[in-house]
Amino acid sequence: YISNVYIENCKKGLVIEGDTREVTLNRVWCYNNQEDGFYIEGGDHKIINCVAGSNGAHGFRNVGGGSQVINCKAFYNGDTTANTYGFLFTSASRRAQIIGCQAQDNYYHGFVLYNVENMLLEGCNADSNGRASSNSYDGIRLDGAKKCLIIGNKCFDRNTEKYQRYGIYLSSTTENNVVAYNDVRGNLNNIYVSGTGNVVEHNRGFVTENCGTATVANDEYIAHGLEQSLNIGYNNCTVQLTPYTTVYDGVPVVVGCN
Questions:
Q1: Is the pTM higher than 0.90?
Q2: Whole-angstrom Cα distance, residue 200 to residue 167?
Q3: pLDDT tens per residue across span 153-200
Q4: 195 Cβ contact list (under 8 Å, min separation 6)
Q5: Where in 32-159 does DSSP place strands (E)?
């Protein structure tokens, strides 16, 4: 159990290596270290109320499989090392739960889930990340992630000149993740969806469902108003059209969609 510790101006901040188990970190601050603020191996840890600020590489790099990370913050990390993030979770972090954390003003991505499975990211803030280059880095990025749940997060850029590219980004190597009930308003873009079998629904600022009534004449159409083109196929899209009249001007109405 490690608590109430301040680590500054080291090569790395706090390092846990090897097959360590059930370490608790509470109120540990890692500031201005040359590389990672927190570098954590092993598993089943509890990391609570910890802060990584202005470190040269990642704020938090891995947290151990099956670990819980609660109410932690990473800000201004990655200013001296390219492609380093507020929070980086690789396969060593599988099954981890990340709850109520904040990635703010990091130079590259805020939260990155890379080649992980069965992770939970819930109730977190991705605030104004990507300061290294506008429209290049994302608040939450999934790359090679499978069967993860991304729920109830807030992704935004509070600056007038925005940097954070997408609130949430799912790359082409993602599979069977659920992204739901997030708020992605206020970024340069909202959500980018690729991969296989991902479910993206009920996110504020990213319209995936729409309904209403309209009257159309011959050769007119109704815009669906959704964020992406419809990809109609078995088990991946439902389009329901109910004509109020089946004939128009004595001619049968043909209902279809594109």
A1: no
A2: 13
A3: 999 999 999 999 999 999 999 999 999 999 999 999 999 999 999 999
A4: 142, 170, 171, 172, 173, 174, 175, 177
A5: 38-40, 46-48, 51-53, 60-61, 68-70, 73-75, 87-89, 97-99, 102-104, 111-114, 120-122, 125-127, 140-143, 149-151, 154-156
